[in-house]
Design brief:
Layout lengths: L7 H10 L3 E5 L3 H9 L4 E4 L3 H4 L11 H14 L4 E5 L9 H15 L3 E5 L5 H9 L4 E6 L18 H17 L3 E5 L3 H10 L4 E4 L7 E4 L1 H4 L17 H17 L16 H10 L1
Parallel strand pairs: 1-2, 1-8, 2-3, 3-4, 4-5, 5-6, 6-7, 7-8
Helix pairs in contact: 2-4, 4-5, 5-6, 6-7
The structure holds 3-methyl-2-oxobutanoic acid.
3-methyl-2-oxobutanoic acid (KIV) binds next to strand 6.
């Protein structure tokens, strides 16, 4: 039976009922199929694809066109899941017009249900304009990787009272501007808990503790595929890097030992055709 697609009102009901929202990134068709089969509530086609798929050092080089291609693939793999496109660096910071046009591309070209963008107070105008265009916006505050240079690297935010207050001000600005959900990244649980209690929109965490309305993880971390580094907040549920490397090694071993392909992997000639072929080759 096809999975029932959850929509925005379902996430608001879940917040009210204290039911946790499960959210995972995905960048391609097969992984999106797995996520949907696993019953994921939402999928993010994150600009983390820059690191997880393309091998960039960060998310800054990722382009709108790359994001759209991956969103299209994920949409095909997970037709019955709420899928969110992530706005890459410089697709919304330069002007409000750019922000609305690029946000719209995620819906028109890739069938996304919503978009996510990074920042609080400083992108409130963009959130308001995109929302006024009828698009569901998800805010992203705390550690915002696209501006990690300004944050002094990929560092947890809100660890002092002053910094926590800035995170809360960002959260309030995002809700006030019209965002329909908020993601908080790498912030202490007590700060996230305050935000989740204060805001009426669902508040989700990645590395921001358990006391909120749901969790996000990066699929490449969860399955043990991304190897460059592992953030503190990641729980690895399996080690596909090991599984895949072992399978590839076993394949090389078989080829070198002439054990692959076996009889069962070969197409046989049709009855009587081999004799005809052999006779012809003798001539
Ligand atoms: O791109 C992404 O996957 C993200 C997460 C780091 C939250 O934005």
């Amino acid at each position: 039976m096809a999975k029932t697609k959850l929509m925005l009102h379902d996430f608001y009901r879940m917040k009210q009922a204290g039911e946790k929202i499960c959210w995972l990134t995905s960048y391609d068709y097969p992984t999106a199929q797995f996520a949907e089969a696993a019953g994921m509530d939402m999928i993010l086609v994150g600009d983390s694809l820059g690191m997880c798929v393309y091998g960039y050092a960060g998310t800054v080089p990722v382009t709108m066109d790359q994001c759209i291609v991956h969103c299209e693939a994920v949409r095909r793999g997970a037709p019955n899941t709420f899928v969110i496109g992530d706005m890459p660096f410089l697709s919304y910071q330069v002007s409000v017009e750019d922000a609305v046009r690029n946000a719209g591309r995620f819906l028109k070209e890739a069938g996304m249900d919503a978009i996510k963008l990074e920042g609080g107070v400083r992108v409130a105008r963009q959130i308001e304009a995109i929302t006024n265009a009828g698009i569901v916006v998800i805010g992203h505050i705390g550690l915002t990787p696209q501006s990690s240079g300004q944050l002094g690297g990929h560092k947890a935010q809100g660890r002092t009272a002053d910094s926590a207050q800035l995170v809360v001000e960002d959260a309030l600005a995002v809700e006030q501007a019209g965002a329909k959900m908020l993601l908080v990244e790498a912030v202490p649980p007590e700060v996230t808990a305050y935000i989740a209690q204060t805001l009426s929109i669902p508040v989700l965490s990645i590395g921001a503790g358990p006391r909120c309305d749901g969790q996000l993880l990066i699929v490449s971390d969860l399955i043990g595929q991304f190897q460059a580094f592992t953030p503190k907040f990641v729980k690895k549920y399996c080690n596909v890097a090991q599984v895949i490397t072992n399978a590839m090694k076993a394949y090389c071993d078989d080829v070198r030992a002439d054990k692959f392909p076996g009889e069962e992997h070969c197409y046989r000639m049709l009855e009587g055709e081999h004799d005809k072929f052999a006779a012809r080759m003798k001539k």
